[in-house]
Give the backbone structure.
Amino acid sequence: MKKRVEYLITTGGLTVLYLVIMLLIVVGVLNGYYVGVIIAIGINIIVASSLNLATGFLGQLALGHAGFMAIGAYGAAHLGKYLMAVLVMPDFIKGIIVLVSCLLFGGILAAIAGLLIGIPSLRLRGDYLGIVTLGFGEIIRISIFNIEAIGGARTVLGIPKLVGITQIFILVAIVLAALYLLVRSRHGRAIISIREDEIAAEAVGVPTTFYKVYGFAISAFFAGIAGGTLAFYQGLIDPKKFTFMFSVEIFIIVVLGGMGSFTGTVIAAILLGVMNELLHAVDNWRMVIYAVVLIAMMIFRPKGLMGTYEFSLVKVVKDYIAKRKNQKTT
Amino acid sequence: MALLETKGLGITFGGLRAVGDFEITIGDHELVGLIGPNGAGKTTLFNLLTGVYLPTDGDVLVEGKSVVGLKPYQIVEKGLSRTFQNIRLFKDMTVLDNVKVAFHHKMSYGTANTLFRIPGSKYWKEEADIDKKGRELLALFKMEDNVNDMAKNLPYGKQRKLEIARALATEPKLLLLDEPAAGMNPQETKELMETIHFIRENFDVSILLIEHDMSLVMGICERIIVIDYGVIIAKGTPEEIKKNEKVIGAYLGQ
Ligand SMILES: Nc1ncnc2c1ncn2[C@@H]1O[C@H](COP(=O)(O)OP(=O)(O)OP(=O)(O)O)[C@@H](O)[C@H]1O
Ligand SMILES: [Mg+2]
């Protein structure tokens, strides 16, 4: 099958999915509350997929993705407030320009932070990164609380609300596509080979230190995008959001879905999103229930829901065509 | 100029002299055997040559230029490639992808090209190229039916072969094989010897072969180096080595 046709199939599938969601909204099956849940899930998909790149594909334990999200959120939000005030142009175009440029800005800030902590800690073998990222997340959180200029302990208000269901759908699709394309390239193979065996990777010509930093920085970049998206959806930033427990929740999504499967991350993010809603009444017990789910997972499906499997509409179509052909010939 | 030359190469681990005063020269298209009892320092020598360990003394020259201090991946670029005593495959990658990783340093498309795969761009050309080369290489090793298998699911003998194929995919000038016959049954060992013959005939590569099994090395190498306690105790043709007193001593523990 031609590559162009394959891309068309994927795009077509996504469009149909989008239209279905929109239809459900229009006919009233999905009310505003559910839309909020879907958007929250979308943001979790972005940040958890980015963590999956670092942890599932690259094999580096990272426990501070809430910190990268916070950097992205604050960077995007403040630039967004500023740009909204100074740019003069029609609202619709302004919204798009501000959203895109600010998300990129937040992502780049997060990626720079990723480089700063990745370069010293990824040069070493072993799980130093886990410890460093854990500390990093806390440092970011406490720093935000103490920097009055960006908002301090107060909630940041007045952020333009630029993200709705359509934007989140497009953002999730772009981020997943980018990560998927990245993983299926020479760069992605280099990243996965490091997870599999760092010494062997280096021995066949992969500059492992470079690719560890590269993969980690890209992961931080997309976590920053997720943070900016969150800020532009809520129209505010609550500095208390970016705790260690939030990093752990993101981590749980990755483990539950399967290290090295974006499909798994999507499914796990949806499952946990729905579960969170059901567990609202027993919020105190949420982490306990997470823990139980994780333990059950380790016992019954240690590789996560999906292992390293990726769903692909193209594959489904190809299998279907092959089956049809078989039926015809027999 | 010799392909590989070591001068007074040595390394000490906290008082233990694992390799010392090591001098060898390997030319183009040679097959040299490196034998020695357990713990003699054979693997350590490979680690020195490939940049895993930094020598405490001496020098390693590849085509006349020192490679000491280079990272292992940079030494691959200089034309040295190796396999490991305990197989190190990318277990959860396909057989074909294992080989494709090894083409990495010959490729050049960047991140933008990866994300925006414009028709006719470098991404498509290079990927199509290594896909073809990878499949051809695996076909040479009679593994064309295994390309989509996970490496971990291959039988032991094929895992060894895949590791050799992967090392060859880096297009080395010198291939370092660390006990490729370890853990093989006689049938597999025989096949392995055929594979090595085959590589010599089909690839423009020299081989330095570590082997425990004397008879295997004697059978295929034209030149043999024997080490014990990290130093060379004998060099020569298989006939000379067989008669060498020191070698007999080292192997019989006298
Ligand atoms: N990283 C290290 N630190 C300390 N000692 C080491 C290290 N690597 C190797 N050695 C020691 O160096 C000596 C040589 O080991 P090496 O693995 O090179 O032997 P070998 O000839 O490959 O043996 P075998 O036939 O069992 O594979 C051994 O005494 C080993 O314990
Ligand atoms: Mg050894």
Summary: Chain B touches chain A at residues 50, 52, 71-73, 76-77, 81-82, 84, 88-93, 97, 100-105, 107, 109, 111, 114-115, 117, 119, 123, 126-127, 166-167, 169-170 (CB under 8 Å). Chain B is about 40% helix and 20% strand. The CA atoms of residues 99 and 166 of chain B lie 5 Å apart.
